[in-house]
Specification:
The protein is mainly beta. It has two domains: 2-95, Carboxypeptidase-like, regulatory domain (Immunoglobulin-like, Sandwich); 123-278 and 310-653 and 688-975, TonB-dependent receptor, beta-barrel domain (Maltoporin, Chain A). The chain has 13 helices and 49 strands. It is a multi-pass membrane protein. GO terms for molecular function: siderophore uptake transmembrane transporter activity.
Length: 976
Amino acid sequence: MKHVLFKKAVLAVFAFLPIWVFAQQTITGKVTDASSGEPLFGVTVLVKGTTTGALTDFDGNFSVEASADATLVFSYIGYSTIEVLASDASTVQMKADVTNLDEVVVTGLATSIKRSNLANNISTISSESLTGTTTGSTLDGALYGKLTGVNINSAGGAPGGQTAMRLRGISSLSGNNQPLFIVDGVYISNVQLTNGSSVASGANAGREEGGSNRVSDINPEDIESIEVLKGASAAAIYGTRANAGVVIITTKRGKAGKTVVKFDQDVGFNTIQNYAGRRQFTSTTVASTFGAAEVPIFEAARDAGRIFNYEEELYGETGLITESRFSISGGNEKTKFYFNASKRDEDGIMKRTGYGRNSLRLNLDHRFNDKLKVGFSSNYVNSTAERGPVGNENNGGFSVGYNLALVTADWEDLFPDENGVYPDGRFAATNIILNRDLIDNEEEINRYIQGANFEYKAITNENFRLKFTANGGLDYFQAKTFVYIPEFQQTQRANQNGFVSAGNTNSLQLNYNAFAVLDFTTNNKISINGQFGISYLNFESDAIINQTTELFPQQTNLAQGNSFAVFQRLTEEEEFGIIAQSTANWDDKIIATAGVRFDKSNLNGDPNKFFAFPRASLAINVANFDFWNVEDVNLLKLRVAYGETGSSARFGSLFTPLGPTSIGGVPGLGLPTVGQNNQSAQLGDANLEPEISQEIEYGIDFSFLNGKIGLELTGYKRDVKNLIYPFSSIPLSSGFANEIRNDFDLSNTGFEIALNANPISNSNINWNTTLNWWKNEAEVESLGVGEFQPSGEGFSLTFGSSFIREGETATSLAANIGGVPTIIGDAAPDFEMSWFNQISLFKDFDLTFLWHWKKGGDVLNLTKLLSDFGGVTPDLDDPDVIANPRFGTFGAAGYIEDGTYVRLREVGLFYTLPTELDWFERVRVGVSGKNLITITDYSSYDPETSAFGPSGLSQGIEVSPFPSAKQVYFHIGFTF
C-alpha cells in the first residue's frame, strides 16, 4: 500500500511540476523611454493583483517572480501607467505623460484619487522638481515659484530665516495666513519663535525680529512628494485648521528589491544679491547735509584713504555652504526601510551669521500578511541659527541695517583699536561694527517627529472591499534662544547697561485619525468609495523668556545682573472632528464627491459646539464618453467644487487676561494697564466663533497627444467671513489697548493657468517644460467698524501702513496726505508667472532652470526713507530729487515703488558618468545656482521681503532687512 502511494505521489509531482515551474519562473526585462530609448531607473513593476514587485535598475532592467500568463503593471512618475503580459515583458516602452493623469492624489484623510478624476486644482511637486536642480536650505524656500496660486515672501535673507507661504490670498487679518503642514500624517508646528530682542529697546514687536518658522526644520531632501490643497473646496475635509490651505508632505520610503546606498556632497557659496548702495559724498554735500564743522573731518578721512563702504563691510562676506547626505533604502515584500542622515552648514553674508541642520530619518514599513500592514516615520532634527543684530529694531541701538541707513556715515572709523576698544558712533548712540562683532543672537532647536500608520483590509472580494486605517503621531521640539548686548555697547550705557535674554520653548503636538473606508463596484460600471472617521488634535506649548539688565562687566549669565524680568506664555489647544465623505465614479466619466466635517475646539466661545464644514465636487471626463472621437485630445474634463473651512481664534482671544499689580506694596492680580508694548491689555470676547472660508472653484483640463501637452484652467472665488481681529481704536479710558472683534468679511478672487508640455523627445533630447500663471485679488467686503489701521500691521500713517477700508483691497498701503488717510498702493501683485524646464541631453547631461516673474505689487521702501533721513541714499544728489524731495514733497507716498521683478530662481547642469565603474552604480556631478539673476527697477535690497513675517496682512513693507543672498553650488553624488 505504501509503495502504491509513493508511486502516485511521484507521478503527481511530475504531473504538476511543469505547472509549478511555469507559475514560478523569473520574468526579466528592460524598460525604456518610448521616444528616446533611454533606460528608465526606478520604474515600479508590480504583478497585478498581488504585492509582488520590483524596481528597475539604472540600466532599466528588472527581475520579478511571476507566471508567464500574469499581468505586470509598470508605473513611473511622469509616464503613463501600462499593463503588459509577463510573457511579452522582455522589452517595455513607456510614454511620457507630462499631465500625470495616472498620478494618485490625496483627496481626504484616508482616500486618494487619480489626477485625471480630480475636481480640484491640486498642485503637486515631486522630489526631483523640489530639490533635483539645486540644494535648498529650507522647505518653503525650495518651493519658490513652482506652484500656481502660491505666494512666498521672506522677512529677510538671514540663513534659515523666516519665510511666509500664502495660498490664494488673504485668509485672516490677525491670525494665521500660513497653511497647515502635514508630514506623513503628522500635523507639524510652523510657529515663528521670538527671542526677546525687541524688548532690548521696546521699539518693535516680536514679529519683526526675523525669527525662523519651524517648517524650516524639515529636510527637503527627505521629501518624496508634496500636494498643496490651495482652497477651501479641496481642504474642507481638514476643517478648522485649513483656512489657509493644506500642504501634505510624503517622505521617501523603501522599496522592495536591491538595497540602494547613496552619498551626496554639496559645496556652495552665499553672496549678496543686491546692494542698496551708498551716497558718494563731496565736501559740498557733507557741508549741506551734516554742517560745515564736519567737512574737515571728512576731508581728513578722504585724504588718508579711510572712506569705508559700510554696506559692503557688513554684507560683503562670501559664506561657505556644505551639505552631506547619506541614505540607504531597500527591503523585501514584507519589510521595507529608508534611512537618511544629513548635515548642512551655511555661513551667511555677514560675519557671525549662519545656519546649521543635522537630520536623521528612519522610515519602516512592514506587511504582516495580505490584510495587515503598518508603517513608521521617525525624524530627529537639530538646527542652529546665528542671525546677528538684524530685524526692524527702530533705532534702539541693536539692528545694524536700521542704523546703517539712518545714523552711520562712511567716513566714521568704527573699527576697534589695537586694544580691541570700539569707538562710539558720532551721529547716534551706536556702532554697527561693534554690534556685528559682539552682539549675540542665537537659536537652537531639538525636534523629534514620530508618525505611524496602520491599515487592515477586513473584506476583500471582487465587488466590495472594506478596510480600517489609522494614522497620526507627535511633533515635539525644544527651542532655545539667546540674545546678548554688552554693557559697554553705546546705547546700553545710557539705557540698560547690558542686556541678556534667554528663551526656552517646549512644544508638543499630538494628533490621530481613524477611518473606515469602503469600496463598492456595481455591475453597471459605477464604483463608490466612502470614508467615515474621527480626528483628534492636542497642541501644547510653554514659552518662557528670562531677561536681565544692569549686567556685571563681561558677564552673559542671567544671574549676573541687577534687574530681572520673566515672560511666560502657556497655550493649550484641543480639537475633535467627525468626518464623512463619499465619491461615486461612473466609468471614469462622471465623478461626484460629497462630504462634511464637524469640528469643535476649545478656541471657540462654546468649546462643545460643532461647526460643519461641507464640501461637494463634480468632474466630467468628456473625452471618456463613447461619442468622443477627437484622437489628439485624450482628456477634456469639466470640473466644479465647493467647500468650507475654518480658523479658530488665537489662544487667549476669548478672555481678558489678568496682569500683576501692586497697591500699597501689596502684590496681586488685576486688569492689565495700557503701556508701551503691552499686548496683554486686550478686551477678550467669550462668544467668538471660527472664521469661515467659503470657496467655489471651477475649471477645465485638457491633455493632448497622449499626454505630450497638458493644460489646466482654474478660477475661484473665496469668501472669508467673520474674520477675527484686534481693534485698537477704542478709548484708552477703557483701560485697554484693543478689543477682539469678529465682524470683518473679505473675498479672494483669482485665476490659475498651468501648461505642461514635452515638446521634444528623441534619443538625444528630452525636454519637459511647465508654464504657470496665477493672480489673486483680495477685497474688503464689509466691516463692523469704519476704516482703520490694523493693529501691529505696519507703522503710523505718517510713514505708511497697511490699511483696511471697505471696497478696497485687503492688501492696501496707506498714508496721511493732508491729514487724510489715503490709499497709496497695493502690495498684491498683478500676477505671477513661472517657467520650469527639465532637459536631458544625449542621455548623460541634465539641464534644469526656473524663471519667476512677479508683475506689479507695490512695496513701501522704508529703507530708502531711513537713508534719506540719514542723508546717505545714493540718488540724493540727483537734480530731480533735489527739486522734489521724497518725504518733503510726497510724504510716505514718495517711497512707494513697483515691486516687479524677473528672477532666475534655479539653474543646474548635471553630468552622469558612464556606469562602467567598479565601485559605483552611478556617479553624478553638477553645478547649480539659486537667485543668480534678478531684473528689477526696485531700488533697495529685495522687492519680495516684508518686515512683518508670515502672520497678518502686512506685505510689501521693507525696513532695512538682512539682504537676500544668491548661491552657487557644486555637487557630486554616488550610488552604490
